[in-house]
Amino acid sequence: MKRIAILGGGESGVGTAILAKQKGYEVFVSDFGKINETYKDVLSNYELEWEQGGHTDALILNADLVMKSPGIPDKAPIVKALVEKGVPVISEIEFASRYTDATIVAITGSNGKTTTTMLTGYILEQAGLQPGIAGNIGDSYAKMVATQDIETYVLEISSFQLDGVVDFAPHIAVITNITPDHLDRYDYKFENYIASKFRIAMNQKETDYLIYDADDPVITDWLKKHPVKSKLLPFSLHREFENGAFIKDNNLVVQIDNNTFTMTTDNLALKGQHNTKNAMAASTVSNLLKIRKATIRESLEGFQGVEHRLEQVLKINNVQYINDSKATNVNATFYALDSMSAPTVWIVGGVDKGNDYRDLYALVNEKVKAIICLGVDNAKLMSHFGNMVDVIVETPSMTEAIKIAYKVAERGDNVLLSPACASFDLFENYEDRGRQFKAAVRDL
């Protein structure tokens, strides 16, 4: 019997454990921290062995295969020991894909990947396909493979998950964009991070597709130097293609082998240029999967967006409060500030991943009237933006941040939470941060 050790007892770890047991593996789950009670119950129900509060090396190093949760860095001592011993260390995406014949749509990118994944999933649901929507969001992909019979998966995949793939080959891959992010995990080398994203296409064949943003010089330069086998379907706001998606006379056009889909951009439910690109990517996927054009159109007109992504929370005294907690990097915050049409009180900060804030200077000068730094260490933000605005304050609590914002904001202003940073200094994750923001706003 083959033995699999699973590092991390969260959603992907527990899902992998269930699938591995079903496929006849001897399973051991090990978490360096604490395993959530709900997950403990699941592990017990499936009679799986587990430990928490540290790794017992002897019980892990004797495995034939190890699945590592995406949050655990390659630099972790246990991972180094496994690599030295020659034990294969893979991601949940790799493991689960070995046990399904479903059509796989895989979506990655520094920003826009959740919206594109949810939008694509929504179109397929409206078409009656019952897709599995998983990966970096929602339920565990491995658990879905173990417990449901799904014909099409739409997977949001992070670079960390791609680092652990070997043979994974999606039929349709999407790269929304690539901007510097998570550089702390890639030795602060941007090219390592780019290479990681392109692993999504490394095993694709001539009969597969790669959909990508042709306006992104990082992507187009990389493709010139490292060609892929799959068919390329670019999308762009500025250029037209024989095969791909583009804008013509205010219409979103998707052309694939003389088959054309068009709809007016005025009717897209999600506003802003970055969302037009997300819609291009999702509609290209949907056209490849032969979804009815009317269904695609109706879905793009009706989709309501993703929680914690430019989510309009409440208007109080004519001030709009906006939750963009999902903006965990500079590029995402760039989109958010760019879409502000009123003077903005900006709440920013958290765990900096090697951010370069210079890209935001012009927007901050143009749009931001006050800055509230919400983090344990705000020195870098203070030095970058201290001279740009009249009001810049530091606070370690969300409630306090909202109270200050309430005092500073005037009629017609926006209060925007768009942190540009990870959340782990003060919050469990970006969802927790976003929910605390919404709760504090409702308590005003």
Plain-language structure description:
This protein has 444 residues and is α/β, with parallel strands linked by helices. It folds into three domains: 3-90, NAD(P)-binding Rossmann-like Domain (Rossmann fold); 94-302, 3-Layer(aba) Sandwich (UDP-N-acetylmuramoyl-L-alanine:D-glutamate ligase), CATH 3.40.1190.10; 311-442, Alpha-Beta Complex (Protein-Tyrosine Phosphatase, Chain A), CATH 3.90.190. The mean pLDDT is 94. The protein has 17 helices and 20 strands. Helices cover 36% and strands 22% of the residues. The longest helix is centred in the middle third of the chain and has 16 residues, at 273-288. The protein is globular, with a radius of gyration of 22 Å.
Give the low-pLDDT segments. Answer: none
CATH domain fold name of the largest domain: UDP-N-acetylmuramoyl-L-alanine:D-glutamate ligase
CATH class of the largest domain: Alpha Beta
What's the number of extended β-strand segments? 20
Output the CATH homologous superfamily of the largest domain.
Mur-like, catalytic domain
Structure class: alpha/beta
Protein name: UDP-N-acetylmuramoylalanine--D-glutamate ligase
Main location: cytoplasm
Catalytic activity: UDP-N-acetyl-alpha-D-muramoyl-L-alanine + D-glutamate + ATP = UDP-N-acetyl-alpha-D-muramoyl-L-alanyl-D-glutamate + ADP + phosphate + H(+)
Pathway: Cell wall biogenesis; peptidoglycan biosynthesis
